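Risk register update: the risk of archive-format incompatibility is retired. Evidence:
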Amino acid sequence: SMESIPLLLSREQADLVAGRFSLGEIGEVSRVTSGMINPVFNLGNRYIVKINTMHEGTAKFERERAASKMIEEQTDVRVPLVVGIDGKRDIIPYEYEVLEYCGENVYEAWETMEESRRMTLVKEMAQNLGKIHRIPLDSFGDILSRENLLTNYGEYFLNNVHNAVLLNEDVGKLSSGTIHQIKTILAESEIPGLTLSPRLVH
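Archived output:
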């Protein structure tokens, strides 16, 4: 529930995190409130702590680390160093990761930024995103798992839609008539024109 999500990282918890990862003196602890989905905390402008309250049991941070490694190895886009991932839940009751601090939050800096700097920043972000989009993968699917992966996007798309239909059938969300129509379409469809190549972001 939302009530169980830690709205604040206590100083005691932050010091325990610092001790676990040998971070040294961490300074002031503050919540990063802009542009974030999960709770994120700034440890003295030296480290960032991200807490996974939204996707329990999904290896979210391991996937992020794998993607960051690919970006670092195949592009010149700067990615934050992953100091460590902790899933013990004895300091914080969720999995969390510690990252190096890479600079000021763009969301927070935007309002006071000069227009020329905004335009430069947007251009840099677009260029970096383009570089990430061009990182090739050998197949579609989970970046951590190499099982049951597909190289054809049409097959990948149909497989995911098929699984979604089965799930809705199991929980009774769709009428039997609707499910029959969808299954008929899936059986007959070849998804013409879908010739996308596997990339890091899709």
